[in-house]
Write a structure and sequence with these properties.
Length: about 300
């Protein structure tokens, strides 16, 4: 039951367009049948989401998550590098991070750092090329969306790479050009690049005058709204815009803009019921209430303790 739930409810939310190429379904689940730790991680994440309607799943899910993380730590000490630096470990960390978005847990930072460290290891990168490409794309997704929330300096460095190497998970090269899905994915990609620019514009403002580029920010935010508005809340892929709305909402001063982005996030939550979305909305409201004169990109690690995506 939990594998089916993961396939039908969790996997579609973790990609922009859900189709037969969804690696959470076509790659992760078959691996989970063969690996005990990954299997448990998949079941934990399914139970975490299911516990919203079935509270009896909550405690077993929490215990299972703790057990999986403990097992990964023990394996890193007791086993050889080829066992620790494996495709299954890589996939398990990604699935655990999916769970952080399901629950809205504040403990995602350690998992992201573990994931980024593992993904650079040669034994993992030299694995099955199809699987490795999928795992690398998902790692890039978590890097792009997660690192800017953990600190401004690392966030800027990460987003400077966004247009080059970190947005591959938004690409669907097999979709025919000029098709409806192609135009949709291009619009979503543009939204992410605009949101990256908004973050960098704020982070690069001088501390002595953090509001220097308010007019530039306002134009960028309006440009982003114009693109987001072309994607209806019910459209395929619209669920992928939570991070975009969070970044632009955090940077917004205009109450109309703030309301717009919060409403878009609420519309995604109505579809996915991922717990990180209410946490994202609360976090952006915390940012609005920050001390005057402080860049919002500086205060994010302090007031936004949820993996926004």
């Amino acid at each position: 039951m939990l594998f089916s739930y993961f396939s039908n409810v969790i996997a579609p939310v973790m990609v922009v367009l859900d189709d037969d190429a969804n690696g959470y379904r076509s790659l992760i689940l078959p691996m989970a049948f063969e690996d005990e730790v990954l299997c448990r991680a998949v079941m934990v994440v399914a139970a975490q989401h299911l516990s919203r309607r079935r509270p009896e799943f909550q405690k077993p899910a929490e215990a299972g998550r703790t057990a999986v993380i403990s097992r990964l730590r023990n394996d890193s000490v007791q086993h050889s590098a080829d066992k620790v630096l494996s495709e299954c470990t890589w996939a398990t960390l990604i699935v655990l991070l999916v769970g952080e978005t399901v629950t809205g847990s504040p403990d995602y930072g350690l998992l992201i750092r573990m994931l980024l460290s593992l993904s650079t290891c040669t034994p993992v990168r030299d694995a099955n090329p199809v699987l490795s490409k999928f795992l690398q794309a998902q790692t890039q997704m978590f890097e792009l969306l997660g690192v800017p929330l953990l600190g401004e300096t690392a966030g800027v460095l990460t987003l400077q790479k966004a247009s080059e190497s970190l947005t591959g998970w938004l690409s669907y090269p097999y979709i025919p050009e000029e098709s409806e899905d192609w135009r949709l994915t291009e619009s979503i990609r543009q939204c992410f690049l605009l949101a990256c620019d908004i973050y960098k514009q704020c982070a690069e403002c001088p501390e002595e005058n953090p509001n220097l580029d308010e007019s530039l920010q306002a134009r960028s935010i309006q440009q982003l709204i114009d693109v987001v508005s072309q994607i209806t809340p019910e459209a395929r892929g619209a669920h992928a815009l939570v991070w975009v709305c969070f970044i632009a909402g955090a940077a917004s001063i205009d109450p109309t803009h703030r309301t717009y982005f919060v409403h878009r996030m609420e519309q995604v939550y109505a579809r996915t019921h991922f717990g990180n979305i209410p946490g994202s909305i609360q976090s952006v409201q915390n940012i609005w209430a920050r001390e005057e004169g402080e860049r919002w990109t500086v205060c994010v690690p302090r007031v936004a303790n949820v993996l926004v995506m």
